[in-house]
Amino acid sequence: MATGQARERLVALARRGIAHHRAGTIPLEPEVFRVPVSAYCDPDRWQREMQRIFKRVPLMLAFSGELRGPGSYRALTVLDTPVLVVRNADGVVRAFGNVCSHRGAMVVEDGNGQARRFTCPYHAWTYDIDGALVGLRDADVFGDIDRSCLGLTPLPTAERAGLIWVVLDPMSTIALDEFLFGLGEVLEGLGLAATYFVGRHTVTGPNWKVAFDGFVDTYHLPVLHKEIFGPGMSSRAIFDGWGPHQRISNPDRHFSSFADVPEDDWADADLDRGVWAIFPNVAIAPLQAYTTPDGAAEDGKMFIVSQIFPGPTVDTSLTVQSFLHVRPPAEQQPKVLAETMDFHRRLLEGEDYRVSSTAGRGMRSAMKKEIIFGRNEGSAHRFHRWVNALVESDDAELLALLSGGVGERHESLDADRGCL
Asked: Are 166 and 307 in contact (CB under 8 A)?
């Protein structure tokens, strides 16, 4: 249950949402926002995004709910960088380059597991869950080496609100709390730290920004998803921002049901609705209730967490969707869980990425020189402003950005803007 400052912040956001609902308004940007097509398609620009965004800022790579005890780990490859995230004997999460100090082989295959030691499959060099080199095959004939200098390379790591962030640059000095701009305090109210990891799938898609544009966009919902949600679904949205991060919610669909309920009776499920977008590539969507096509129901709350990673080329991406539940896997209904996950995979793959992939082809055709985001699409404005700012900044400028922000800091996106 959300308590203390986390609940206070969520309640404040809900008040603003209810005010928009009652007034029939939404926040509007001062003018439309234009993005050159080359920002999506140019390989050189894409390479700068990889270096100046994905390899510099903290990336949310794992969940507290999947690393529940000492030795639990997740190994994954991000932008050709092998990463190992593991909880040590003291309960602290650490991350390392998943690269053996001997010949550079991956020590652990991508996936989740439980281990006390990690042994490289090439020559059996062995590391403990703190990354130290503790085993050396044929040490008596190998030669003199300083094992204390040959552990796995540590990566900056932090755990907040049930989420685990890692920076791919081992020399990074960016502090997670500074990067989150206060969002971490709000995320605590979602209760992700108490959830269990129950499933995951991956979907290939278009350019990473084309893909992420869709996750922060409500404008398409009654059009692209009309068969699922119905043509009467509202495309209106309000936006709350913390630096580059934001929450996208619908003033009518998300706030109308409890607008006349006393604040003390507002439930957590009322307060966290919408999509929580963590820059540069994560979208968290709470699911309050769900059923299978044959009507089987599942109780308890679930979160869908989508991580959009750039693919090997400028026009590809890989979306990892993880499912977190308030109850452990053993208490799930396997059929309901499987069909729920499959539904969201088909929704993303068969509708969102089917159409957005054509947008990617359209951009590459050079028929248009720019993409236009309307005044009602403030989430895209914020996302692309921050992408541009990071691509154009060196390390010193990046630290200044994190101190001063791009646009307002800890303020709602509609501050000093017009409303409809």
From this structure: no
Closest CA to 384 of 149, 94, 39, 117: 39
Q: Does residue 265 share a domain with residue 239?
A: yes
CB-based contact 359:209 (threshold 8 Å): no
Specify the CATH number for the domain of residue 348: 3.90.380.10
Q: Same domain for 98 and 226?
A: no
Provide the CA 120 distance to its chain's centre, in angstroms.
30
Q: Helical H runs in 27-181?
A: 38-41, 43-49, 139-142, 176-180
Q: What is the pLDDT of residues 305-333, one digit of tens each?
A: 999 999 999 999 999 999 999 988 888 88
Q: Is the pTM of this model over 0.90?
A: yes
Cα gap 126→136, rounded to integer Å: 7
| 106 and 42 housed in the same domain | no
CATH of the domain at 120: 2.102.10.10
Compute the distance between CA of residue 198 and CA of residue 194 in angstroms, rounded to an integer.
13
- Let me know whether 356 and 237 are in one domain: yes
189, 9 Cβ separation under 8 angstroms: yes
Q: How far apart are CA 369 and CA 363, in angstroms?
A: 8
Quote the domain boundaries for residue 389: 4-57+183-404
Residues 250-293: pLDDT tens digits? Answer: 998 889 989 999 999 998 888 999 999 999 999 999 987 555 55
CA–CA dist 111, 133 (Å, integer): 22
